[in-house]
Design brief:
homotrimer, 171 residues, alpha/beta, seven-stranded mixed sheet, globular
Chain lengths: 171, 171, 171
């Protein structure tokens, strides 16, 4: 499982470190975009990220079934970057009201990661270190994110916690 | 002070790591439950945790005076697990409007920890790494939690920060 | 660049560790206060911090142009403590509606840090590890804080992430 996880807060520098890591491997490189921008602010953020990748990565868009992309596409590339899972978790909440379905899709992704041969670099957000929110959906999202991050981290052979642009190795 | 602290965000995997740590010691083992479930969601969370402990831990319920339980009960067990202090901090806010009283109860607990002979494993939440909340009570709770976690951490001989199911040693 | 950064959550113990660090160097010592207390609660927090510093630090108040203070004042002291940048970031949001202006002021500060000869110790908050807030301004503040912390961290020769009164070295 040649899989690396970068986990950190918002604007912690995790995307930049993950991208640098991916660029240290030779092309061809794949970028899997999971975000479905739903407003102007999000569109701006996505465009900013895209501009940074031009000529460096091929892009494949998949909002839900990451397992299929991992199994069908990543073998053709030296390295695949998935940034970031939090958008994907959002999509799972958006598309599936049923909690079990979200868990199922997540577990299929984790299973897919166990069968890869080429390097995959995954970026995700730590969202559970603030105060417990009043909002029930927010709590469910934090629970799902934390659980999913643990599951994915457990099949990665390298994992880093990112603070202020610096890496702390998770062993 | 054979005391170990696991501190992490929501769903960081801190409870599972602390439990695994406690189970590495032989029975009898004590679990101190501090939570007073006030709604259905909380009841479900508590039941889930209880099911995992059946046959492995004896359970003692104490919502406020943890110092007394620590002094009177823990010596009879090879290891005591307290999971998690954040529920207890919540209780202190619920039962005591007077800030000084909360501090007093906390300091009594810290004092009790200095006099234990058997292993105690404590789980607590990091809640102060999000944005400063608008809500005054939330800010007070974060302040109290952070201060209390520091106090308790200072009398533990081992402490771990948990991220995504992985431990970072705090020295 | 003899510059040290302490980054941590609210009530993580970062201020106390930074102060201890500063006090390990001989007087004269400078404290740069950036906060403009806008309510009673904030005033109380500021007063508490001031009391701890009496006789140990000289104080210089500057809510915006930290670069000028760094360039004009720090050379006269063996060590300068800036605690904490989050208040300063708040001021930049308060005084400058224009995002570009905030970035400019921040970059001037980072430039100033590159030209210092005496030790500077900086304290800042990690605010991006909770759930993404609904509030647009809150998101902008998190983005700015995270970006600014990274910029500043990149010109520090020592940086520590503080959890529960303990330091984790950022390398």
């Amino acid at each position: 499982m040649p899989c690396t996880l970068y986990i950190g807060g918002m604007k912690s520098g995790k995307s930049e470190l993950a991208e640098k890591d991916a660029l240290s491997l030779p092309a061809p490189r794949l970028y899997i975009a999971t975000s479905v921008p739903i407003d102007e602010e999000m569109k701006r953020r996505v465009v900013l990220h895209q501009q940074r990748r031009i000529g460096l990565f091929e892009t494949f868009e998949e909002p839900v079934n990451l397992d299929r992309v991992v199994l069908a596409e990543t073998d053709k590339y030296n390295v695949t970057l998935i940034d970031c899972l939090t958008f994907w978790y959002n999509n799972l909440f958006y598309y599936f009201e049923d909690k079990k379905k979200r868990i199922e899709v997540l577990e299929e992704f984790v299973d897919a990661l166990k069968h890869i041969n080429k390097q995959i670099i995954i970026v995700t957000n730590e969202v559970g270190m603030g105060i417990i929110p009043d909002n029930k959906l927010a709590r469910e999202f934090i629970d799902f994110s934390g659980w999913a991050n643990q599951k994915i981290c457990s099949v990665c052979n390298k994992a880093f916690f990112v603070v202020s642009g610096k890496k702390i190795t998770l062993e």
